[in-house]
Amino acid sequence: MRRLITIAAAIFVTSVGSLYGQTAASTATLGTVRIPQAVMADGKPLPAGTYQVRLTTTSPAPVVGQSPAETRWIEFLQRGTVAGREVATVVADADMPAIQDMPKRGGAVRVETLKGGDYLRVWMHHSGSHYLIHLPKGS
Predict the structure, then answer these.
(1) What is the mean pLDDT of the chain?
(2) Cβ-proximal residues to 133 (8 Å cutoff; 6+ apart), any chain
(3) What is the pLDDT of residue 17?
(4) Is residue 60 part of a domain?
(5) Domain total in the chain
(6) Per-residue pLDDT at 1
(7) Is the CA virtual torsion 104, 107, 108, 110 positive or negative?
């Protein structure tokens, strides 16, 4: 019985360790962004401030006509703590040849208010993909 418990514990520790390693290895930091005014992220307030933006390993349920790889959850971190999260649209470099003034180098960030003033778009470029994050303005 003691041997069986020891074997089960070893299997558990190995599987948890490999799961943790996969999660840590597959998240990426996209860069740092300054949000100039309060916005909403995933339906919750995200105050103005400077955030580290991290790509997660999870994708939301795909929208009709999109593959799961075209959307990813991103997290906004301040001082190592997740302050908010939102879905980002992922577009490969090859799919964006006609767009002007896009960030072209790794770590490039662009924050702009969209026409009408109701949304703030955060546009980040990292490892051959563009991440477009649309945040409704907060109250």
Answers:
(1) 77
(2) 53, 74, 86, 87, 88, 89, 121, 122, 123, 124
(3) 35
(4) yes
(5) 1
(6) 47
(7) positive
Measured distance CA(90)–CA(67) in Å, rounded = 10
Distance (Å, whole) CA 32 – CA 54? 9
Q: Which domain holds residue 86?
A: 27-136
Question: Identity (one letter) of the amino acid at 75?
Answer: E
Q: What is the pLDDT of residues 47-84, one digit of tens each?
A: 999 999 999 988 888 777 766 678 899 999 999 999 99
- Taking alpha carbons only, the member of 100, 93, 110, 99 closest to residue 30 is 110
Assigned domain for 20 exists: no
Query: Is this structure's pTM higher than 0.90?
Result: no
CB atoms within 10 A of CB 14: 10
**C-alpha distance across the termini of the chain, in Å:** 61
18 occurs within a structural domain? no
Distance CA 81, CA 96 (A): 33
pLDDT of residue 62: 73
Tokens coding 25: 């290895």
Q: How many CA atoms lie within 13 A of 111 on its CB side?
A: 17
Give how far the C-alpha of residue 46 lies from the chain's centroid of Cα atoms, to the nearest Å.
15
